Amino acid sequence: MDQHLKETQVDSALVYDGHFLKVQRDTVALPDGKHTAREYIKHPGAVVILPLFDDGTVLLERQFRYPLNNVFIEFPAGKIDPNEDHLVCAKRELQEETGYTANDWQYVCTIHNAIAYADEHLEIFLARGLTAGERKLDDGEFLDVFKAPVTEVLQWVREGKITDVKTIIGAFWLEKIVAGQWKL
What are the protein's GO molecular function terms (predicted)? Predict the structure, then answer.
């Protein structure tokens, strides 16, 4: 169907092998037969949790992100370990980062947040029936946890106070879910 757009790998080389990320440089054949290089980041994937309380508030985090030298407001999220089930990862990350557990989990969607230069995918889950507990932050992980109404989160998106793409997409999904417009 889309064969006239497809690029085909001719050669591949790992140019950086880091602890978390890997950088790949491939030679590809374009649809017209010419060759070019494609550099991209290989990422293990991650989960994003939309923790929704019965009163319509959501659980958010404030975390410093080194590449942009700033503190960001985000939904809880974390890297998927090798061979880890995505829902198991979401449950683990919610508990580790926030201390909360949930008894109602629903898959929302998969997003690809950097398609031009990474193979990263994020699996988004809605978590309800939340119960507070003790956090188990990873060594070197520092973040604040707080609650806010979905309407306020959407306002922060409009004002540019929230710029994290996974959080923006999660907020838009929550707006539709809470209004009953989108069913999971």
Answer: hydrolase activity
